[in-house]
Amino acid sequence: MLRLNRVMAGSLTLAMALAACSGGSSSLPSAGSSTSSSQGLTGNNPASTAQAVSVPMTRGRLAYSDAGRRGASSPVTVAIVLNYNHQAELDAFIAQQSGAHGGHQFLTPAAFNAYYAPTAQQEQAVLTALQQAGFTITKRYSNRTVIDASAPSATVEHFFSTEMHNVNQGKYGLRFANLKPATIPSSIAQYVHTASLSNVVIAETQVDQDGGVTRSQINVQPGTKPAGGSPGKELPEAMRTMASGCSGQLLLNPGFESGNVDWTTTSGVITNYSPYAYQGNWFAWLDGYTSPETDYLQQTVSIPAGCTATLTYYLYIGSNEPNSAIDTLKLTANGTTVQSFSNVNQTNGYYVKQTVNLSSYAGQSTTLKWTSQQNGGYETDFFIDSTALTLSGGTSTPTPSPTPTAKPTPTPTPHPTSTPTSTPAPTPTPTSTPASGCNGAAALNGPLSNSSGTLATGVAKPFDFPVQHGCNGAGETAAVIIDDPVNTSYVKTYLSAAGVTQTGTITNEAVDGGGSGDDPETDLDVQTISGLAPGANIIVYDMGSLTDQAIEDAYNQALTDGKAVAVNSSFGGCESSDTPFESATNSIAQQGAAEGVEFSASSGDSGSNECGSNNNAEGVSAPAGDPYFTSIGGVNFAYNSSGVLTSVTAGSSTCGSASGMCYGGGGVSTVVALPSWQSGITGMIASGRNQPDISLPFDPVAVYTGGAWGEYLGTSWSSPASVALFLEADQLHGTKLGWLNSTIYSLFQSTGYNSYYTPCTSGNNIAYSCNASHYNQAAGIGTPKGWALANAL
């Protein structure tokens, strides 16, 4: 997962530096939790009363502090997930499609919408109540499952009987949350499954840069800099730039991870000290020494004519200077000031993203220069990290887009506002994917790895992916749900190094405004899927921020688009921190299960302690633990020179977590009950849903990101690898396979480790150990034997 830091002004004390969904809990009281049924399914039909909306209780690096009551007129956004109709029939229908070589006769989106989805009248009842209360409806969907709305804080408080507060959430800045459990009004409670009243970030990506430094609280005396380490190995010029036409990113060494190369600076500006970096280990530190002093950081680029050019970077300002605007930082482009800051613009202990439009410099060679001037007698520090100069517009089309298809707009059969009883259930028809069997594509035969880690062939061969047997995912489509879009030029560089020829398409689709900038997580997800299933199409649904509202909207958008057959989620948060999020995402994924769409999610990188800090509190991750998601754990593995798998183990890998170590996530839920398909399996803990289900490689993977190669690790690698495997299985059978958990466990119960799975033989994830003879919470069933399992599904 990406390691980021909150630097306290003046003393530069690092807080917020714990593992994903780990760390000390918020000072707010617990709001309780809900428990799903024994099947892990939501028993929601319109006659039921919606549960209260609990307070989001994010922990660790996602923890927040109360900043006081939100102003009455300040805007608040809400997302409301509605109940389905005929819930018991829906549960039974999905169960009928499960099992090896099952019927696989899934519903079309139109058929689902006409019978199981909320009716037009039910949706309208909620819309009317919101509008009459003073809400503005901001988004609706053709499946009538999610409603997005906004209103002044006072309106939200009155409607939901709650109290809205501003909260400080570390590097994510000032946000809002209901700090009192909310209640769904009785007038619409029968129609509402759950709601979100917060824009707190509740999940983090599960990718870690290998070899990171422990991030504990550190105090630095004013006027001193840490000793810088040796620069990273300088990369060949061909591997450091990426832009072509009006796409890509222009700055070399944009995150400073290659050390003091590509930038012109005063001495000591580019610094190797991970606790102060926004991400990675290196950052630019301007000033912090004596007065007077001038530091600068600059790089010259050529911006192509006709392109839109957007500079983004992250800035921290901390100061002990009591005088007004005496220490300054200016950003110039060819000598013209485009941004300026001073000691009075402190960023309150965290990095703040800056965005500058440089399109007016298109067609020119442009020198970007940050210059700091220390004039006072006290310290002011300016930190810069994660820069990017991104191109867009023009006529460049780096990756062909698939022909758009219209969203389904069904005409629902009229229903009363209560649960329908007279309309017959839809009769499913066999749903075939565009492909029909394998297309005889060439097996991957590129290098198994490079100096930064494993490449695509290094997974496909050891785990015998169907691509080695002529199934490359052609005709299938994956959805990647993530906060930032993918840089397709980076994908091309990766595939070239991996010796993979891609025939599928890659497109970005913005949700809720979308994200921006370069992100190692997105690059890893897309490079993994395109490398292992090069014939598949990939749609990146980027939503800017991993809030519950944004994630739910992205999932629902993927379903209403109706293109993807597998959905990847390389992120997670402590399951018990936000139980409405678990319930909402599971409900949306259930609709996917009815329509033949599979959901995979990373089980986390903090081992058995996804909800704790310093290895002292066990907990599991959501959405991976949702019953309609397949939880993908992470293991270490080894292979010989021919690519034959020789071992599967669990254990720690060095990374930038609070403890300095990362492990594949796993454990038992305190929120979701033990589902029937896990019942009776040796090794299961009967008190709740167990994670992970299966595991795939965890460490180390080579990723081309930010214009350079890097070595990364985490279940962010294993989850998209599972999506590639399931896409190829769909292609093999010429039909959607959909939700697979019941099938996966059924095959394991009948054959153990004889046919379809390889056990994890040793190691642990802190609290749980691998076992070569049965299921375990360190690695789940184990790793799939790809070709054998794909044939058995």
Provide a brief overview of the structure.
The protein is α+β, with helices and mostly antiparallel strands. Helices cover 17% and strands 25% of the residues. The strands form 12 sheets. Strands 24, 25, 26, 27, 29, 31, 32 and 37 form an 8-stranded mixed sheet that branches.
Describe the protein's architecture and organization:
With 793 residues, the protein is of the alpha+beta class. It is 17% helix and 25% strand. Helix 6 crosses helix 7 and helix 7 runs parallel beside helix 10.
What multimeric state do the chains show?
single chain
Strand percentage lies at: 25-35%
Largest sheet: 8 strands, mixed
Q: Mean pLDDT, nearest integer?
A: 83
Distance N terminus to C terminus? Answer: 31 Å
- Report the count of strand segments: 41
Draw up the topology in text:
Elements: E1 6-7, E2 14-15, E3 65-69, E4 75-82, H1 87-96, H2 109-115, H3 120-133, E5 136-139, E6 146-152, H4 153-160, E7 164-168, E8 174-178, E9 192-196, E10 204-205, E11 208-209, E12 264-265, E13 270-272, E14 282-286, E15 293-303, E16 308-319, E17 328-333, E18 336-342, E19 352-357, E20 364-374, E21 380-392, E22 449-450, E23 453-454, H5 457-460, E24 477-482, H6 488-498, E25 506-510, H7 520-532, E26 537-542, H8 548-561, E27 566-569, E28 571-574, H9 579-594, E29 598-602, E30 621-622, E31 630-639, E32 645-649, E33 653-654, E34 661-662, E35 667-668, E36 690-691, E37 694-697, E38 701-705, E39 708-713, H10 715-733, H11 741-751, E40 757-758, E41 783-784, H12 786-792
Parallel strand pairs: 24-26, 24-27, 25-26, 27-29, 29-31, 31-37
Antiparallel strand pairs: 1-2, 3-7, 4-6, 4-9, 5-6, 7-8, 10-28, 11-39, 12-15, 13-14, 14-21, 15-20, 16-19, 16-21, 17-18, 17-20, 22-23, 28-30, 31-32, 33-34, 35-36, 38-39, 40-41
Helix pairs in contact: 6-7, 7-10, 8-9, 10-12
